[in-house]
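Exercise 7. Given the components listed, write out the predicted structure of the assembled complex. Treat all entries as one system.
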Amino acid sequence: MDASVQHEQATIPDGEKLSAVMQTIAEHKGCGTSGGSGKASCGSGAGQNDLPPDIWEKVKNHPCYSEEAHHHYARMHVAVAPACNIQCNYCNRKYDCANESRPGVVSEKLSPEQAAKKVLAVASTIPQMTVLGIAGPGDPLANPEKTFKTFELIAKTAPDIKLCLSTNGLALPDHVDTIAGFNVDHVTITINMVDPEIGAKIYPWVFWKHKRYTGVEAAKLLTDRQLQGLEMLTERGILCKVNSVMIPGVNDKHLVEVNKAVKSRGAFLHNIMPLISSPEHGTVFGLTGQRGPTAQELKALQDECEGEMNMMRHCRQCRADAVGLLGEDRSAEFTTDKIMAMEVNYDIDSRKAYQAAVEEERVAKVVAKQEELASLAGQSSDIKLLVAVATKGSGLINEHFGHAKEFQVYELSTAGAKFVGHRRVDLYCQGGYGDEDSLETVIRAINDCHAVFVAKIGGCPKSDLLAAGIEPVDQYAHEFIEKSAIAWFKDYLEKVNSGEMAHVVRGDAEIRQGALISVA
Amino acid sequence: MTLKIIASQCTSCSACEPECPNVAISEKNGTFVIDPKKCTECIGHFDEPQCAAVCPVDNTCVIDTSYPRYQPPA
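Answer.
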């Protein structure tokens, strides 16, 4: 589908607009796509039909599965599953800092009953909360009674909330029928390898059928069970996303093989995440000095796999008790003490009304992007560049430069604006970083970008950014991100083509790690 | 002998509790404890003590030498 056809569809009368736009999205890709390249914002080059309308229908309100949805819909995790059945070298369950943001960590464990109450309390307070996930902090399927009891209680009291779970896969084949029985339609499996020799470097042991297995034997068992579980789920029509941790020098190149293996078994989305390995977390990789990837290494691997299947690039690697939109964490508002004291009035109708309003906002964003994209039609250039955007959500450039805790990164080309990731720039409660110049932190994190789009920016950071070769752009304050980025890119191309300025290639950027200082 | 859980190491993850064939493990003051009267070191049940095999923190479920060695019934 070319851009002019999209433009026509986007300007048909109001009554038909919503369904037409949605159909355009569904036909095209599913993750809020645009543009002649056929690449979605959460990416895929595998062809127009790789995300059929029925799958789009399932993921369109799921922030962890649709990049487009994560601006609008929220999720929560309940920490009912503390036990785990495998050991990973990037995980350490022993230390929990309340301000820390990484998977496998929670501040308090919940019983299934407490979890159900919490879900109702959160859903009543945050009407765009559409998804409940159980992601640990151990493995949900190593705690099957607690996990499924929680699902049962929530399905009874809040039937409109989607249920999902995230597992290491070891126990998965034993529970597929139960998962299907609870209408869990999204499952995430963390698969870091399909070669046991590589697995032995990631997993010291697994516990299975009353025995601890180590080394290659453990990894062989794990990969066999993971792939079997994946096949069993997709056979039953349950949507599967695969998470992989990118560990440079261990499985980075191998993840291309993993990508092929999971695609051929029916996974619909692959999420390659950077290793988190600060020494203060006390993980094996943290203590041995195993580094994580740079921003460009991560992007290059994601780009390489994108030809095979949809890639997810908006993962925030959140905690197993996170609450709210991705990139924000409101879990501190919903501690057990607070939720037990809350009067909960669960009103499905008001939630539906709110979500309908969100849907209108979302359609407006898509229309704006498509209109701007049409104006780019006919331009051709080999230039591809990255820009960073300060946003609080809703797909708008609506955050002050100095207040941004993260920047979203878009790749611009004549094919349009494509979301390719985000960069954390918050401060961290780790030794040595407290006094660090925050502007330097930001520049290191977005050093591969040509421009940064903000709602507002002060004079000082503006000149420092310019000195670092990053253009601060505040002329599109409170406008839609993609539309603005495309408009800016058009101007950029004109300047380059007219000889007014030369296109330069930017360097690499750093992926920030460590514990997040909560600002709430 | 019996096994014991070093409280300062225990993460309270609860993984050991359902694995114990003797239902000897329970939660007490935020961590898990093994009832020495019930623990059989898994002798006769499994090849290795299950609590130690599933525990995510090394050297946390350990033999308590202050108790005599468990004698399986003849």
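Discussion: Residues 1-49, 428-435, 514-520 of chain A have pLDDT under 50 and may be disordered. The first helix of chain A runs from residue 3 to 10.
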